[in-house]
Amino acid sequence: MRNRCSPISDTTIMASAGAQCNHVNHVATQLPYAITVAAVSFVCFIIAGLIRNWLICLPIGIL
Fold first, then answer.
1. In sequence order, what are the residues at sequence separation of 6 or more whose Cβ sits closer than 8 angstroms to the Cβ of residue 3?
2. Across residues 17-24, what is the average pLDDT?
3. Where are the alpha helices (DSSP H) in 19-62?
4. What is the spatial distance between Cα 52 and Cα 23, in angstroms, rounded to a whole number?
5. 1: exposed, middle or buried (C-beta count within 10 Å: 0-12, 13-18, 19+)?
6. How far apart, in whole angstroms, are the C-alpha atoms of residue 61 and residue 21?
7. For position 4, what pLDDT does the model report?
8. What is the mean pLDDT of the segment spanning 11-39?
């Protein structure tokens, strides 16, 4: 997911060209997914710093 929301990424450019859609529209459709993953990762990172036990943090992150 790291390159899907970057407008200058080669994979993003190729994906929008392959789908024959507007490049800016393609980037805009990928932003909700990238923002969701970033938010969940941030919360899990904070929880992992507080709990410090991977056996507890991993199931929380998966949920």
1. 9, 10, 11, 12
2. 85
3. 23-51, 54-62
4. 42
5. exposed
6. 34
7. 64
8. 85
- Confidence at residue 3, expressed as pLDDT on a 0 to 100 scale: 64
Q: Are 12 and 24 in contact (CB under 8 A)?
A: no
The answer to whether 16 and 6 have CB atoms below 8 angstroms apart is no
Tokens of 62: 């998966």
Exposure b/e, 5-28, CB count within 10 A at least 16 = b: beeeeeebbebbeeeeeeeeebbe
- Amino acid letter, residue 57: C
d(CA 44, CA 63): 10
Token pair 């529209």 is at which residue? 25
Q: Please state the rounded mean pLDDT for residues 5-27.
A: 83
